[in-house]
Write a structure and sequence with these properties.
The protein contains 6 helices and 13 strands. The chain is of the alpha/beta class. It folds into 2 domains: 140 residues, Rossmann fold (3-Layer(aba) Sandwich); 71 residues, ACT domain (Alpha-Beta Plaits). The protein has a 6-stranded mixed β-sheet with strand order 2-1-3-6-12-13, sandwiched between helices. Strand 1, helix 2 and strand 2 form a beta-alpha-beta unit. Ribulose-5-phosphate (5RP) binds next to helix 2 and helix 4.
C-alpha cells in the first residue's frame, strides 16, 4: 500500500485525467503528481479509453516518461493551441496563486500554463498555504554567468537567495535549458505575488520565477478522510 501522500497524489491525478477528452492537445506538467497523471493518460491511450491525444511536455522528465508510454508529443512551436494543461505545484494560496519550480521546470511549465485554454493544478493537501513562501523557497531561473549579480539584486528586494545545489553531482542544479536556479526566501512570506513576479522577472539575467499568478483555473486537492484518499475541488477565495 502506498504511503498517504502518494495515495493523495494518485487520487488527484486520476481525477484530473478524467477531464482529458479525445482529440485534445494536452499540456503535461512535471513532478511526481503530474507524472502519475501522465502514466494514467498513457494507460487510457493503451486500453482505448482515450485516443488522438497530443502531449506538450514541460520538462525532460515528462518527455522521457511520455516517450516510454507512447504518448505522441509536439513542441510548443508546432501546435496552435493547448486545450488543457495539468500540473502540480509546491504551494497554493487561497487566491490560486502558486509557487512552482520544485523540480526546476518552471520556465516551460509557465509557458504551457499560459498557453492552455484551461490550467488545472493537482496537489495533495500538504501544499495548501495561507501565504506563499513561508514554507517553500521561491525558485528563480538565472543565466549561469549572472547568478551572483541576480543574487545581489534579490537581496536588495529583501530576499535571501541560495544557489540550488545538485545531489549525486558536484556543483549546482543545471536546468533543462542549461541555466541555474536561485531559491529565495522573503522574511514573512510574499505579500504581493503579482507585483513580485513582475519585479523579479525584470532583473537582467532572470529567465523566469516560480510565482504563477492568475493562471490556475481549477485546483484539485488530494486529501485523506477517515483513512481514505479523496479529491476536493478547492473553492477560490
Ligand atoms: C516542478 C514543479 C512541480 O509541479 C512541483 O514541484 C510539485 O511536484 P510534486 O508533484 O512532486 O510535489 O513545479 O518544477
Amino acid at each position: 500500500m502506498a504511503d498517504l501522500q502518494t495515495q493523495m497524489k494518485q487520487a488527484v491525478a486520476l481525477a484530473a485525467t478524467d477531464q482529458v477528452k479525445n482529440g485534445m492537445v494536452l499540456g503535461l506538467g512535471s513532478g511526481s503528481t503530474a507524472a502519475l497523471m501522465i502514466q494514467e493518460v498513457g494507460a487510457r491511450l493503451r486500453d482505448g479509453r482515450l485516443s488522438d491525444i497530443v502531449g506538450v511536455t514541460t520538462s525532460f522528465q515528462g518527455e522521457v516518461l511520455a516517450a516510454e508510454l507512447g504518448i505522441p508529443l509536439q513542441s510548443l512551436n508546432a501546435i496552435d493551441r493547448i486545450d488543457l494543461a495539468i500540473d502540480g505545484a509546491d504551494e497554493v494560496d487561497p487566491a490560486f496563486e502558486l509557487i512552482k519550480g520544485g523540480g526546476a521546470c518552471h520556465v516551460q511549465e509557465k509557458l504551457v500554463a499560459r498557453r492552455a485554454e484551461r490550467f488545472v493544478v493537482v496537489v495533495d493537501s500538504t501544499k495548501l498555504v495561507e501565504r506563499l513562501n513561508l514554507g517553500f523557497l521561491l525558485p528563480v531561473e538565472v543565466l549561469a554567468g549572472a547568478w551572483r549579480q541576480v543574487q545581489a539584486e534579490l537581496q536588495q528586494l529583501g530576499g535571501s537567495a541560495d544557489l540550488r545545489m545538485a545531489q549525486r553531482k558536484a556543483g549546482p542544479v543545471v536546468t533543462d535549458q542549461g541555466n541555474l536556479v536561485l531559491d529565495v526566501s522573503f522574511a514573512g512570506g510574499i505579500n504581493d505575488p503579482a507585483g513580485l513576479e513582475a519585479t523579479i522577472n525584470n532583473i537582467p539575467g532572470v529567465l523566469e520565477n516560480g510565482l504563477f499568478v492568475g493562471l490556475a483555473d481549477q485546483v484539485l486537492v488530494g486529501e485523506i478522510n477517515d483513512g481514505v484518499a479523496g479529491v476536493r475541488d478547492l473553492p477560490r477565495a
